[in-house]
Amino acid sequence: MVYDKSQYFGSHLENCPPNDARTASGIVYRLVKNNPPNKRDFIPIAERCPDKINSESGKPNRETCQAHGLSVYKNKNEALINKDRFHYFRDAKLAIANLSPECGHIKKTSTDETPSHHTLWLPCEMKIWQVFEIEEQVGEQ
């Protein structure tokens, strides 16, 4: 698969997705509101709250690029802790996905409070909600 950066959300920004983001792979978790997950569960902060993403200088910064991606966690328990930490997620459900290269690029964007936090940048045409399932449903048919 060829990495055409211009086909990604946030690609209009310099160095977004970052050059050190790697091809998406592995299990990740995300908090979602809907069962099954749908498009509304995967709107980047840059689209939901565009007034909050620029630096004080008005120029895009690292956080601006990150806001064009999606927050995911490699650690299930950490995602659940954040469910309780933020009012917005109190009634959220835990969704799981096994990412493949078609899902885009990912980078560890952790903090001391969220060591397994990663940001996932999607190709513009990716319907990522079709890759995620509510965690309790994994394996059920």
Characterise this structure:
The chain is of the alpha+beta class and 141 residues long. It has one domain (5-137). Helices cover 14% and strands 22% of the residues. It is built from three helices and seven strands, in the order ββααβαββββ. The strands form two sheets. The chain has a four-stranded antiparallel sheet with strand order 1-5-6-3. The model has no long low-confidence stretch (mean pLDDT 86).
In summary, what is this structure?
The chain contains 3 helices and 7 strands.
User: Helicity range of the residues?
Assistant: 10-25%
Question: What is the SS-derived class?
Answer: alpha+beta
Shape: globular
Strand order of the largest sheet: 1-5-6-3
Task: Summarize this structure as a short list of keywords or feature phrases.
141 residues, alpha+beta, four-stranded antiparallel beta sheet, three-stranded antiparallel beta sheet, 7 strands, globular
